[in-house]
Automatic annotation (TrEMBL):
<feature type="domain" description="4Fe-4S ferredoxin-type">
    <location>
        <begin position="174"/>
        <end position="206"/>
    </location>
</feature>
<comment type="subunit">
    <text>Monomer.</text>
</comment>
<dbReference type="InterPro" id="IPR013542">
    <property type="entry name" value="QueG_DUF1730"/>
</dbReference>
<feature type="binding site">
    <location>
        <position position="246"/>
    </location>
    <ligand>
        <name>[4Fe-4S] cluster 1</name>
    </ligand>
</feature>
<feature type="binding site">
    <location>
        <position position="221"/>
    </location>
    <ligand>
        <name>tRNA</name>
    </ligand>
</feature>
<feature type="binding site">
    <location>
        <begin position="239"/>
        <end position="240"/>
    </location>
    <ligand>
        <name>cob(II)alamin</name>
    </ligand>
</feature>
<keyword id="KW-0560">Oxidoreductase</keyword>
<dbReference type="GO" id="GO:0052693">
    <property type="term" value="F:epoxyqueuosine reductase activity"/>
</dbReference>
<feature type="binding site">
    <location>
        <position position="189"/>
    </location>
    <ligand>
        <name>[4Fe-4S] cluster 1</name>
    </ligand>
</feature>
<feature type="binding site">
    <location>
        <position position="61"/>
    </location>
    <ligand>
        <name>cob(II)alamin</name>
    </ligand>
</feature>
<comment type="function">
    <text>Catalyzes the conversion of epoxyqueuosine (oQ) to queuosine (Q), which is a hypermodified base found in the wobble positions of tRNA(Asp), tRNA(Asn), tRNA(His) and tRNA(Tyr).</text>
</comment>
<feature type="binding site">
    <location>
        <position position="242"/>
    </location>
    <ligand>
        <name>[4Fe-4S] cluster 2</name>
    </ligand>
</feature>
<feature type="binding site">
    <location>
        <position position="132"/>
    </location>
    <ligand>
        <name>cob(II)alamin</name>
    </ligand>
</feature>
<feature type="active site" description="Proton donor">
    <location>
        <position position="132"/>
    </location>
</feature>
<keyword id="KW-0846">Cobalamin</keyword>
<feature type="binding site">
    <location>
        <position position="156"/>
    </location>
    <ligand>
        <name>cob(II)alamin</name>
    </ligand>
</feature>
<comment type="similarity">
    <text>Belongs to the QueG family.</text>
</comment>
């Protein structure tokens, strides 16, 4: 007798591979019991800072069945963004995830095709695609479905490829075979905690988001705190320090997604170029980039702060 659940699961995993996703794991949709007190505590301590959207839809964040009626499965996906080349050393730094085109658009297109393919091959399946743009606890679901463990820097880590990848989900009203969580392999390592320039990792596995350089350079809309001048280590947009020092990222391999390749001008920009950048150049070099999120004025503020 054909095991229909197994057949559907195999199809979904092979489609994920065809669409260029690095990994695919599946878990049963339901209430994230362990995450509820953690999220509540994090919010109560105001670790979200001005990211007020983190306070919204508390119940939906913890229960995907409130996002998709009758949902049965959460399909978690990883998409590699580790670049083959990095910026010149004499440069203000931007996070590697922002080198190429804005990942929201790149991944949304893949997910749209993925869902369409599932509906075409399996039948009437209802579902929704998510990529960092809705109240879904991406890392918790990815860990639950065995794609890695949440490390001391609160990023999802894997032994084979580190942590330079995006996480996305399809939430489906389809019964599938479920994967199991993997064990934690951080051990006694504290590299990320020791290296964080603003001590945002307040204890292992707990990050105060409002102290992170990524928060300051992207989310914070007002002036940067004067007392932190000199502690940003030349990061003008985002920060990769806790990932760069993580031993598991020795195993990162360059991505194969052409849309994540940077504008050639980006990698060669020197500090002087950044300081002299005009709004016109900004619009050309970062045409479809996530950097547009901070706007030219935000980038200008960050660069002035670093000088």
């Amino acid at each position: 007798m054909i095991d229909i659940k197994s057949t559907y699961t195999q199809f979904i995993k092979s489609e994920a591979k065809r669409l260029g996703f690095m990994s695919c794991g599946i878990s049963q949709a339901g209430f994230l019991e362990l995450e509820a007190p953690r999220l509540e505590d994090w919010l109560n301590k105001n670790h979200q800072g001005q990211m007020s959207y983190m306070e919204n839809h508390f119940d939906k964040r913890l229960n995907p069945t409130l996002l998709v009626d009758d949902s049965k499965s959460v399909v978690s996906l990883l998409l590699n963004y580790y670049p083959s080349e990095v910026q010149t050393s004499d440069s203000f730094k931007i996070s590697k995830y922002a080198y190429g085109q804005d990942y929201h658009f790149v991944i949304k297109e893949k997910l749209k095709e993925f869902l369409h393919s599932i509906q075409e091959n399996i039948g009437e399946v209802s579902g929704r695609a998510f990529v960092d743009s809705a109240p879904v606890l991406d890392k918790a679901w990815a860990a639950k479905s065995g794609l890695g463990w949440i490390g001391k820097n609160s990023n999802l880590l894997t032994q084979k490829v580190g942590s330079f990848y995006f996480i996305a989900e399809l939430i489906l009203d389809l019964d599938l075979e479920y994967d199991h969580a993997v064990t934690d392999h951080c051990g006694s390592c504290t590299a990320c905690i020791d290296a964080c320039p603003t001590q945002a990792i307040i204890e292992p596995y707990k990050v105060n988001g409002s102290k992170c350089i990524s928060y300051y350079t992207i989310e914070l809309k007002e002036n940067l705190p004067v007392e932190l001048k000199g502690s940003f280590e030349d990061w003008a947009f985002g920060c990769d320090v806790c990932q760069d020092v993580c031993p598991w990222n020795r195993f990162s391999k360059p991505h194969k997604e052409p849309l994540f390749n940077p504008n050639p001008d980006l990698l060669s920009l020197t500090k002087k170029d950044w300081e002299e950048i005009t709004e016109e150049t900004f619009k050309v070099v970062f045409k479809n980039s996530a950097i547009k999120r901070t706007k030219f004025s935000g980038l200008r503020r960050n660069i002035d702060f670093l000088k």
